[in-house]
Every structure is written in structure tokens, then in C-alpha cells.
Write a structure and sequence with these properties.
The structure is a single chain. By secondary structure, this protein is mostly helical. The protein has one domain. It is about 75% helix and about 0% strand. The longest helix has 24 residues.
Length: about 140
């Protein structure tokens, strides 16, 4: 249980700044993104957690977001796509549909509440939120 907390703290420690930066600048720094994934993998290794299941979910979520990026003609940014493996890694125990639905529905609801129509909406905060929910599920 203590090692699960380590993985979660690594995710929050780097995921929250990523979400904040994307919210303010519509950019996700590659170094933070890489550090997040490396930190999650390292924490998993240190805690003797399984590696295959999170890696597969990370690949699945990345593939799905890549497909959505193609279908939406850039509605999903490259930074969001690069963040996907970390979100898949942290939320690997939750069904993939829960993770995607949490991110998508929370983005839509907040967009409606804030009156956002069209334009650019940063998606990383919603992906990080989905990762938290996926971890807790």
C-alpha cells in the first residue's frame, strides 16, 4: 500500500504542474512529460508492481488518443498524445472506457459551464483528472 502511495505521489507531483501549465499556456513541456512517465515506471519498479499491464494500457490509451487526434483533425494536441502513456500507466486498473469517459465528459461539462464554444480547450487537466480517478477506481 505504501508503494502505491509512492506511485500516486509521483503522478500528482508532476501531473498537477503539467495540468497547470497546459491550462495557462496550452503547452505541455516535453521534459515534464518525460519525467512523469520515467517517474511512474521507476516507482513501479521500486515497488515491485507489475509492469506489463500498465505498459499495455499505456499503449492502448496512446493508440486511442492518436486515432482521436486523426479523426478530430488536431483537436487532441501532440502534448496530450505524449501525456497519454502516463495516464494509461497510472490508471491501468480502471477500464479504459472509464479513463476516456472521465476526461471527455469532464472537459465537455466544464466547457459548457464556462461557455466555451469552439476555440482551444486545454485537455491535459482533464487527462490528469482522469488519471486520478482511474487510479482511485
Amino acid at each position: 500500500m505504501a508503494f502505491q502511495l509512492l506511485i500516486f505521489l509521483v503522478f500528482l507531483g508532476l501531473g498537477l504542474p503539467i495540468a497547470w501549465i497546459d491550462l495557462r499556456s496550452h503547452r505541455i513541456p516535453n521534459r515534464l512529460n518525460a519525467a512523469l512517465l520515467a517517474g511512474l515506471i521507476g516507482a513501479s519498479i521500486l515497488s515491485s508492481q507489475p509492469l506489463m499491464a500498465p505498459a499495455l494500457v499505456a499503449l492502448e490509451l496512446t493508440g486511442l488518443l492518436a486515432l482521436l487526434r486523426l479523426l478530430s483533425r488536431g483537436g487532441i494536441g501532440m502534448g496530450d498524445l505524449k501525456l497519454a502513456p502516463s495516464i494509461g500507466w497510472i490508471s491501468f486498473r480502471a477500464p479504459l472506457t472509464v479513463t476516456l469517459a472521465t476526461a471527455g465528459i469532464s472537459a465537455l461539462l466544464l466547457g459548457r459551464l464556462c461557455g466555451l464554444r469552439g476555440g482551444r480547450t486545454p485537455f491535459a487537466p482533464f487527462l490528469v483528472f482522469a488519471g486520478v480517478i482511474g487510479f482511485l477506481v
